Amino acid sequence: MSITLTSNLNLTANFDQIIQYRLNIQADEGGTVSSDGGLYNQGTTVIISAIPNDGYVFSQWSDGNNEPNRTFTMNQDISVTATFTSTSISHNVSFTSTDGGSISTQGGV
After folding, report:
1. What is the model's pLDDT at position 1?
2. Which of 4, 73, 82, 95 is 20 to 30 A off residue 20, Cα-Cα?
3. Count of alpha carbons within 13 angstroms of residue 98, beta-carbon side
4. How many degrees, rounded to 5, is the angle at CA 30 between CA 29 and CA 34?
5. H/E segment holding residue 38
6. pTM of whole model > 0.85?
């Protein structure tokens, strides 16, 4: 912008402060998250996802939300951790032999 001055002129520059909030996002054992988090300007929309590893399912976020995909509008600092549950099921098995026989604990799967 250019101005041709024909008399005295007072100008004032006004600035708005940029407010930023921190998103701290982590994953427990069994998965990852789609973002490393960081600083975001106030009002920014951030989408995050919890991604389970093979053999795991997403359980919930540390704030109790159980949706794996989340959308935050950054108007405060936010810290969440994704938790995952193993899909492996283990069982204990007991074997007993009666008189006249024995059980081998070698081999098998």
Report:
1. 74
2. 82
3. 0
4. 95
5. strand 38-41
6. no
Long-range CB contacts (within 8 A, 24+) of 67-73:
71/45, 71/46, 71/47, 72/23, 72/45, 72/46, 72/47, 72/48, 73/43, 73/44, 73/45, 73/46
d(CA 14, CA 16): 7
- Rounded CA gap, 63 and 83, in Å? 11
pLDDT tens, residue by residue, 30-69: 999 999 899 999 999 999 999 999 999 999 999 999 999 9
- For residue 5, pLDDT over 90 is answered with no
Give every CB contact of residue 98 below 8 A, 6+ residues apart in sequence: none
For residues 70-88, give the mean pLDDT: 96
The token duo for 92 is 């204990």
Tokens standing for residue 68: 């794996």
- CB proximity list for 20: less than 8 A, separation 6 or greater: 39, 40, 41, 42, 74
